[in-house]
Specification:
Radius of gyration: 20 Å
Order of helices and strands: EEHHHEHHEHHEHHEHEEEHEHEEEHEHE
Number of helices: 14
Structural class: alpha/beta
Strand content: 15-25%
CATH topology: TIM Barrel
Number of domains: 1
Distance between the termini: 30 Å
Strand order of the largest sheet: 2-3-4-5-6-7-10-11
Helix content: 40-55%
Shape: globular
CATH architecture: Alpha-Beta Barrel
Number of strands: 15
Length: 424
């Protein structure tokens, strides 16, 4: 028997580019058009959620899910510089009203890796002066949707976006530059701080709002524990990839590679700690890989203990409620996902940290960035040929946990006991 703590809630998460479909003029649509997706799928199709949002909302309600994190598609809302689409904004307004009617609380994300091509052509987040465009977008959204949403994520995983797009060059715009990587992380910090202040300035007079940024964090450990090079590499990776970002984004405390380019005053720039956690990295000679052990279908190590280790480090910086805004696994056969969820939730329940929410990534199988449709993370199966949704065994398990406020012995035997991880 695993009993959830008082007030703890289970939700699910999605991102606009990964589910909505529609061939909007965005950096990711352009990336797909150029043929960079491994399985040749296209984000312009995805799960067609933009047209099927009512069906998906009803499915959320059927599954008992009352907390839903999703993002807006900036390229829909501002298809041309300074030209806002009120048809798109009103579409999101209707979607939010549907969720409200069904008793589902939104956690709204402004930026989840996707932006208009006009912004990309202006240099995107590589240029400090471009932050004004992001803030104008946020301001317009608040005018139309602000009365319907109490909780916001400004930026999703700034470290992942910067590293994948500008260091490894795996994502659009496929550049490889340490300088640009650092510039992007710093400019995103400016966007977060100013958006945080704006949201509170606009909405605080009407209601209590909470704002955070979703930080991708992982465990970094030396591949060989007694190897000095591996130890140094590990410390540098952790510092540059996540520790200093947390200090800069949450507290406006800047240490290399973060710089206070906007002369932001020190303070607290978040109302909750938002953590996206998936795996552990084994760091060798300034390269990272994985330890031997259980793996998901993308080869990522499954390391449930890490979810508390990373949360503890963020909590030590600023003591406030913690939301796990993403946690999930690629399991194309749904053969170990229930065990994965259970093992991570057990770590959370065994911890004294004030973790109040857990948003499973993700709700429905979707377009998984460069992997395309081939990597299935959902608790709902999507047949891309028909766009038919079917609740997986893990989805039924998730619903049962919400209903029981935990995991009963019977639910454990039905959904978890027979599952096991894949090993090297």
């Amino acid at each position: 028997m695993l009993r959830f703590k008082e007030g703890f809630r289970l939700g699910v998460a999605t991102a606009s580019t990964q589910i909505e479909g529609g061939f909007v003029d965005s950096n990711w649509t352009n990336f797909c058009d150029e043929g960079h997706i491994k399985d040749n799928s296209h984000c312009g199709i995805a799960t067609d959620h933009y047209n099927r949002y009512l069906e998906d909302a009803r499915l959320l309600k059927e599954m008992g899910i009352k907390d839903y994190r999703f993002s807006l598609e900036w390229a829909r809302i501002e298809p041309e510089l300074g030209q806002f689409s009120y048809a798109a904004l009103n579409h999101y307004r209707v979607e939010l009203l549907v969720l409200k009617e069904m008793g589902i609380k939104p956690l709204l994300t402004f930026y989840h890796f996707s932006h208009p091509m006009w912004f990309e052509e202006l240099g995107g987040f590589t240029k400090k002066e471009n932050s004004i465009y992001f803030l104008e977008y946020v301001a317009e959204v608040l005018k139309v949707l602000g009365d319907l949403v109490d909780e916001y994520v400004t930026i999703n995983e700034p470290n992942v976006y910067a590293v994948q797009s500008y260091f490894f060059g795996e994502w659009p715009p496929m550049k490889k530059s340490l300088k640009l990587t650092i510039d992007v992380m710093n400019n995103l910090a400016v966007c977060h701080h100013k958006a945080y202040e704006m949201i509170h300035r606009v909405l605080d007079k009407h209601k209590e709002v909470k704002v955070g940024y979703a930080h991708h964090v992982r465990i970094f450990e030396p591949l060989e524990k007694n190897n000095p090079v591996h130890i140094i590499s590990t410390k540098l990776f952790e510092k540059a990839f996540q520790l200093e970002l947390d200090k800069a984004f949450m507290l406006a405390e800047f240490n290399f590679p973060m710089k206070n380019i906007a002369k932001t005053k020190p303070g607290i720039y978040c109302d909750f700690i938002a953590i996206n956690y998936y795996t552990r990295s084994a760091v060798g000679n300034f390269k990272d890989t994985y330890f031997e052990g259980p793996k998901n279908d993308l080869g990522w190590e499954i390391y449930p203990e890490g979810i508390i280790e990373v949360a503890k480090k963020s909590y030590e910086l600023v003591a406030m409620p913690i939301y796990i805004t993403e946690n999930g696994t690629c399991d194309n056969q749904d053969s170990f996902r229930s065990k994965y969820i259970y093992d991570h939730l057990k770590e959370i329940m065994d911890s004294a940290l004030p973790i109040e929410r857990y948003y499973h990534w993700c709700f429905v199988d979707n377009f998984e960035w460069k992997e395309g449709n081939s990597a299935r993370f959902g608790i709902v199966f999507n047949d891309y040929s028909t766009q038919t949704r079917t609740i997986k065994e893990s989805g039924h398990f998730y619903s049962q946990m919400i209903k029981d406020n935990g995991v009963t012995d019977a639910a454990y035997e039905q959904y978890v006991a027979h599952q096991s991880y894949h090993y090297d």
